[in-house]
Amino acid sequence: MNAMKAIHSVRKKALVGMIITRVLDTTYVNPQWGIWSLSNAELKADLKFHSQLSSVASVAGISASVQSGK
Fold first, then answer.
1. What is the pLDDT of residues 42-56, one digit of tens each?
2. pTM
3. How far apart are CA 33 and CA 43, in angstroms?
4. Is 32 exposed, middle or buried (0-12, 13-18, 19+ CB in 10 A)?
5. Could you tell me if 46 and 38 are in contact, meaning their C-beta atoms sit under 8 angstroms apart?
6. What is the pLDDT of residues 5-63, one digit of tens each?
7. Which of 9, 13, 34, 69 measures 20 to 30 Å from 43, CA to CA?
8. Which of 37, 38, 42, 40 lies closest to 23 in space, CA to CA?
9. 30, 34, 49 from 20: Cα distances, Å
10. CA-to-CA distance for 40 and 27, rounded, in angstroms?
11. For residue 31, how many C-alpha atoms fall within 13 Å in the half-sphere facing its CB?
12. Using CA atoms, how far apart are residues 32 and 51, in angstroms rounded to an integer?
């Protein structure tokens, strides 16, 4: 509520839309986009999942690199 009050107090209405898009949309749409909002347990679970995925991908020969991106 405080964030919305501060944002809507901006005089330039076009700027209000930009602020809302950049600051609030990412945290309300998907908690993964606002990684800072996750609990320690959620962060550890996410790290474990991505570590396992990375291990499987490296064994299977499926990995991303700068060179493969080119």
1. 889 988 988 888 888
2. 0.41
3. 12
4. exposed
5. yes
6. 888 899 998 898 888 888 776 555 565 566 777 788 988 998 898 888 888 877 777 66
7. 69
8. 37
9. 15, 14, 31
10. 17
11. 6
12. 16
